[in-house]
Design a protein that fits this description.
- The complex is a heterotrimer.
- Chain A is of the alpha/beta class.
- Chain A has a single domain, classed as P-loop containing nucleotide triphosphate hydrolases (Rossmann fold, 3-Layer(aba) Sandwich), CATH 3.40.50.300.
- Chain A is built from 10 helices and 12 strands.
- In chain A, the strands form 3 sheets. Chain A has a 6-stranded mixed β-sheet, sandwiched between helices.
- In chain A, strand 9 (about 205-210) and strand 10 (about 210-220) form a beta hairpin.
- Chain A starts with 5 loop residues before the first strand and ends with a strand.
- Chain B has a two-stranded antiparallel ribbon. A two-stranded antiparallel ribbon of chain B has the order 2-3.
- The radius of gyration of chain C is 22 Å and the shape is globular.
- Chain C has a single domain (about 25-270, about 285-295), classed as ABC transporter involved in vitamin B12 uptake, BtuC.
- Chain C is about 75% helix and about 5% strand.
- Classes of the chains: A alpha/beta, B mainly alpha, C mainly alpha.
- Chains in contact: A-B, B-C.
- The interface between B and C is large, with 37 and 39 residues.
Chain lengths: ~240, ~325, ~375
């Protein structure tokens, strides 16, 4: 637990004329799964995209392993060891599962083979459907592929955007298991609307509101803070004890 | 919205185009027409495929594509004349030497226009990525400039395109007349299609290009400098147009500075029918247009263009996005 | 019922309307009109009058295209099709059918407008089903098709050679009403004023159209189609209306053009180069500003008329190398380069960019 692997400080970003990020700061450390929470439009996805270089920051700094990456192009950032799983999964549906990995692979060597074995262990379906076109996979399998793909490279940081979207609860359980296993191999920053998933997986959280990071802390803190959950996430406990969003 | 995959429709139309004319035309004429139709189709394919690939991968509408086609024809013309002056292979009795000079001229033309394409992409296309409207505008300007440059370098008049000796004339096979050059065109065109197909399907670069047609942003996110690929694909597309230009010139035996404009409309129609961004679509679409044009031209001389437009309208009504989806 | 005065929208519009007759731009327009009206007398030379009239006709054509492109956001590359239809109806009626009198002339215009309107509705049907960029290419294909049709159907259209014809009564070349203000009042002059009046009327109509509530809806569709649909506008209907209106205007300008040159052929009324010209004019002048068409047309027509002359002088000064001579002869080349530069630096056209700068200054 030393320096954070990713350090985002005071970042502002515009999309067109809209000032989406108005001062975002957060970190990710080894051994942690950091969750970004907040309402729709609060700036979580844009933050990930800004880290990845898809949106240029107008202010602030982004440091990965101590190196400033804010002004780099997306492909350069990817090569530094950051993987990205976007909201729409970004799969190449006309290509096979194998070809999807081929595009993702940055080199083809012994280590890549080992990583593929690891991937097959965590996501056995991908091995089974290796030669199938990505488009025919089920929703859950597609999500697995989307998450597994960047892992073929020794990425030390994985940015995952709303993986549970549109998935059935049992599939979400699978996903949670898989991501747990990943914790050992890579640092994960997760954007999630599904609070259940976020709370099961996340070790630390950051709350986003209106383009700013307004609160942070270890996950246990948030689990019991009903006021904050209601204020920033719109979640409230019904009197019968269930969670309603 | 319509379901996105109905390959059987394409097959039926192709079959229809192949078989229906048999009802009206004698078998021997039919074979002759089929050969010239396939050859014409192959030429359309070369031009349309470059355009389609560029649109599919870069999402760029390059209206200057026709001008690059014309440049290909002119460079092919000059290099052929030069090589011929040097070696005399063009007039030789040996089919192989004829082929050699022909291919050399084409390859040289392809390479040079490929470079021209790289230049065009860097200077003219890069600034307008993302806006189809401005692409139309600026490529129109580029088209004017390129066409005028042809007039500067070669002069504004038409030129006669030399044809290798052994390509002229026709074979008589069991009473069926087969023009020689169309056969060459079919062979060459098929070889090129096969080459592109294999590169796209089997090589890493090809796979990345196919991925980029679907989602260029994601390809970047995976660590590939997509801009380099853009330039490369643009160059290849331009080279294809150039080779198409050289071969087309040999087909019609003449070149003139405005020749790009004539062909671009056909290439456009082929690309739309086949589906922008699809190589398979370009081939099938091109063959359909080439064949139907030739059959109808024989039966109803003035109706040939009409059938092409009819085809376009029918496809647009039935499958507005074209026969094949992007990236196939 | 409104008890407390006007709604914000009404207030805005009233303010707008009040400013209309006092703004400096209004006086500029009156000046322009006066200038155009006096042209045959100011410039005794026929050549200049010819250039000016072509500017008038093409400004109107480009303005109609701007309604499509700049206001509704529809990218069509076959707009000149309607221009050609207008020209050909006049040409066929006057020339091929030989009905040289006023009635048939008006009939020709009416039929041209009707045909264009119906055609644009049919073609518009496609726009519902395909992406914008496909639509652009399809319209180009259709225009090419019409071009080839016109070239092939010799009996009706006179084929590639086209149709030369005479005009009826006061418009004909023979007519002469004596001298006035230093020039002969020939049928040509009458035609000039006829066309000027028609184009002026069309322009006013177009202005009315874009400044009407209908025009506003079009702008909203252009800016954010999804939103417009969400608010409840049947965007398709509005797009069809705009495109029909603009095609009818184009048809009338085509008829006017035929009257002026007394000749129609595929090359002069239906060809892709003319469409390119229109495109160039709309870009140079500015999209979304009808007046941009005037600027663009003026730019193109004057360059076309005078650049070859300047270049002739330049050529005579150059050494005798064929390349150098050919290079300087190709003024179109410089035009193309100039055009590319204009697109780079003035993406909204010259007028559009200027307008933007003014608006920005106004806000700060």
């Amino acid at each position: 637990m030393g320096e954070p692997i990713l350090h985002v400080e005071g970042v502002h970003a515009f999309i067109g004329k809209h000032h989406i990020l108005q001062g975002v700061s957060f970190e990710a450390r080894e051994g942690q799964i950091t969750v970004l929470l907040g309402r729709n439009g609060a700036g979580k996805t844009t933050s990930l995209r800004t880290i990845m270089g898809l949106v240029p920051p107008s202010q602030g700094s982004i440091r990965f392993k101590g190196e400033a990456i804010a002004r780099l192009k997306p492909f350069e950032i990817a090569r530094k060891g950051i993987g990205f799983v976007p909201e729409d999964r970004g799969l190449f549906n006309l290509l096979t599962v194998e070809e999807n990995f081929r595009v993702a692979m940055l080199r083809e060597d012994e280590m890549t083979r080992k990583r593929l074995e690891m991937i097959f262990e965590i996501f056995p379906d991908l091995q089974r459907f290796w030669k199938a076109k990505a488009g025919i996979l089920s929703g859950g399998q597609k999500q697995m592929l989307a998450i597994a793909r960047p892992l073929i490279n020794p990425n030390e940081l994985l940015l995952v955007d709303e993986p549970s979207k549109g998935l059935a609860p049992i599939v979400v359980e699978h996903l949670i298991e898989a991501l747990h296993k990943l914790q050992a191999h890579t640092v994960v920053i997760l954007v999630e609307q599904n609070f259940y998933m976020a709370s099961r997986l996340g070790t630390h959280f950051y709350l986003f509101d209106d383009g700013r990071t307004v609160h942070r802390g270890p996950m246990e803190e948030l689990l019991h803070d009903e006021e904050m959950k209601k204020k920033y996430l719109g979640i409230s406990k019904t009197s019968s004890g269930g969670i309603q969003e | 919205m319509r379901p996105s995959s109905r390959p059987w429709l394409a097959k039926w139309i192709v079959v229809g185009i192949f078989l229906l004319p048999l009802l009206f035309i004698g078998l021997k004429t039919y074979i002759t027409l089929t050969v010239s139709g396939l050859a014409m189709g192959m030429l359309f394919f070369l031009v349309a495929s470059g355009f389609s690939l560029i649109f599919g991968f870069l999402s760029v509408l390059n209206l200057a594509h026709g001008a690059l086609f014309a440049w290909g024809a002119y460079i092919g013309f000059t290099s052929f004349s030069l090589i011929n002056r040097w070696t005399g292979w063009g007039g030789s009795e040996s089919f192989l030497l004829n082929m050699a000079i022909f291919l050399s001229a084409l390859i040289f033309s392809g390479l040079l226009v490929g470079l021209l394409g790289i230049l065009t992409e860097r200077l003219v296309i890069r600034p307008v990525y993302g806006s189809h409207l401005f692409q139309i505008f600026i490529t129109v300007g580029a088209m004017i400039v390129l066409e005028e440059l042809i007039r500067v370098v070669w002069g504004p008049d038409d030129e006669v395109m030399p044809v290798p000796l052994k390509f002229i004339g026709s074979l008589d096979l069991f009473d069926v007349v087969l023009s020689k050059y169309p056969l060459v065109a079919i062979g060459l065109g098929s070889a090129i299609y096969l080459a592109i197909h294999l590169i796209l399907k089997k090589t890493r670069i090809g796979t990345i290009v196919r991925a980029g047609v679907e989602n260029p942003e994601m390809v970047q996110v995976m660590g590939h400098n997509i801009y380099r690929y853009f330039t490369g694909v643009f160059a290849v597309g331009s080279a294809l147009a150039a080779i198409g230009g050289g071969m087309w010139a040999t087909f019609v035996k003449s070149i003139h500075p405005a020749m790009g404009g004539e062909v671009i409309v056909f290439a456009l129609i082929v690309a739309i029918i086949g589906g922008l961004g699809s190589m398979t679509g370009s081939v099938i679409g091109a063959l359909m247009v080439g064949l139907s044009y030739n059959y109808v031209a024989y039966l109803v001389p003035k109706g040939a263009l009409g059938i092409t437009m009819l085809l376009l309208v029918v496809i647009l009504l039935v499958r507005p996005t074209g026969l094949f989806p992007e990236g196939t | 019922m409104k008890e407390r005065g006007l709604t914000p929208v009404q207030a805005f519009r009233t303010r707008e309307r009040k400013g209309r007759f006092t703004a400096p731009s209004f006086f500029l327009r009156i000046l322009l009109l006066a200038f155009l009206g006096a042209t045959p007398f100011l410039f005794r030379s026929f050549e200049l009058t010819d250039v000016i009239l072509k500017i008038i006709i093409f400004s109107t054509l480009v303005a109609s295209y701007d309604i499509l492109l700049g206001y509704t956001g529809i990218v069509s590359l076959g707009h000149v099709l309607y221009f050609g239809i207008g020209s050909y109806f006049v040409g066929i009626f006057m020339g091929r059918l030989g009905w040289v009198s006023y009635g048939p002339l008006l009939l020709a215009f009416a039929l041209a407008v009707l045909t264009s309107g119906i055609l644009s509705i049919l073609i518009g049907f496609f726009s519902l089903r395909i992406r914008a960029i496909f639509f652009a290419m399809v319209t180009l294909a259709f225009m090419e098709f019409a071009f080839i049709l016109a070239s092939q159907l010799r009996t009706i259209t006179g084929g590639d050679d086209g149709i030369s014809f005479k005009l009826p009564g006061i418009l004909s070349v023979e007519a002469n009403f004596g001298r006035f203000g230093g020039i002969d009042l020939t049928g040509r002059i009458v035609s000039y004023y006829f066309i000027l009046v028609v184009c002026f009327a069309l322009f006013l109509m177009m202005l009315r159209f874009v400044n009407s509530p209908l025009g506003r809806v079009l702008l909203s569709i252009r800016d954010n189609e999804q939103r417009s649909i969400a608010i409840g506008y049947k965007t398709y209907l509005y797009q069809v209306m705009a495109s029909t209106f603009s095609s009818c205007v184009a048809a009338i300008t085509g008829g006017c053009f035929a009257i002026w040159v007394r000749y129609v052929s595929p090359e002069s009324s239906l060809s892709v180069p003319i469409m390119l010209d229109v495109l160039l004019m709309v870009i140079v002048g500015g999209m979304g500003t009808l007046y941009g068409g005037i600027l663009g047309a003026a730019f193109l027509m004057t360059t076309r008329a005078f650049l070859p002359k300047i270049q002739g002088i330049v050529t005579s000064l150059l050494p005798g190398m064929p390349w150098a001579i050919r290079f300087s002869e190709r003024w179109l080349l410089f035009f193309g380069l100039l055009f590319i530069l204009i697109v780079y630096f003035f993406p909204k056209g010259i007028l559009g960019t200027v307008q933007e700068r003014f608006e920005r200054k106004r806000e700060t």
